[in-house]
């Protein structure tokens, strides 16, 4: 038993070292620097809460938080709806199920920057061409307004992540006893009743996991935002990650960027953990 404990910690040590060196120690240093005038090289003065007070005075930072929240709410709903729908589709015993699973999952394998440039071409060049050909003004000038930029980001993210979330739902759908569904069907339960009373309660743990993953991902998006809209027009589609990056490396205000990062971390943690707590509680009630 003692040898097993030693081997356990021996294998776990590299992971703990990596976590400490890459995540925990930089986080602690960042938290400390957020109270100073750190410029990326040295901190010469302790400023207290000055950086935290200043960041809430910035309209651009507040706007980026609001835009990120709106984007995340809409994207999380759409991604989970599509993911569950695709999972139900490919678990119906069709001959092409394995092929469809591969096709739906493939967008998740494409890097964020490349994906953004692909969809930028579609939204700008392809949509303009179709709009001019068919005389549809709504397709022209995509990504040139805040509204179309918002929906462009939602479409891109949903297309990329729906297949990944589908895999999680598939794992739970395939563990639902077939005889349970057959018994409900024999008793006269409709498709909607079987989904509401049997399928959805049994895939509730998958819903918890998927919600956590999609919320944390949508809040942290940077590369897709950069390659698709670059925050334009006039920073109206700028998400928090991009705003923090600009504060740090464009404006060279490292300490202020650190304080924004700490606030952003706290916001994402509160929303994610609250979501997990609520969904876990709902699983028990079901």
Give your account of this protein's structure.
This protein is mainly alpha-helical and 286 residues long. The protein has a single domain (52-285), classed as MetI-like (MetI-like fold, Orthogonal Bundle). It is built from twelve helices and no strands. The longest helix has 32 residues, at 2-33.
List keywords for this structure.
286 residues; mainly alpha; MetI-like fold; globular; MetI-like_sf; ABC_transporter_permease; transport; transmembrane helix; membrane
Q: How is the secondary structure organized here?
A:
Elements: H1 2-33, H2 50-55, H3 59-90, H4 97-105, H5 112-134, H6 146-173, H7 178-186, H8 191-202, H9 204-219, H10 223-228, H11 240-250, H12 254-285
Short description:
76% of the residues lie in helices and 0% in strands. With 286 residues, it is mostly helical. The protein is globular and about 75 Å long.
Give the SSE string: HHHHHHHHHHHH
User: Quick one: how many beta strands?
Assistant: 0
* CATH topology-level fold name: MetI-like fold
Distance between the termini: 39 Å
Specify the helix fraction band: over 70%
Kindly estimate the percentage of residues that lie in beta strands according to DSSP: under 5%
Largest sheet: none
CATH superfamily: MetI-like
User: What CATH first level would be assigned?
Assistant: Mainly Alpha
For the record, the CATH architecture stands as Orthogonal Bundle
Mean pLDDT across the residues is 89
Shape: globular
How many domains make up the 3D coordinates?
Answer: 1
Q: Specify the structural class.
A: mainly alpha
Q: How many separate helices?
A: 12
Rg over alpha carbons: 23 Å
Unreliable residue stretches: none
Keywords: Cell membrane, Membrane, Transmembrane, Transmembrane helix, Transport
Protein name: Carbohydrate ABC transporter permease
Membrane topology: Multi-pass membrane protein
Family: Belongs to the binding-protein-dependent transport system permease family.
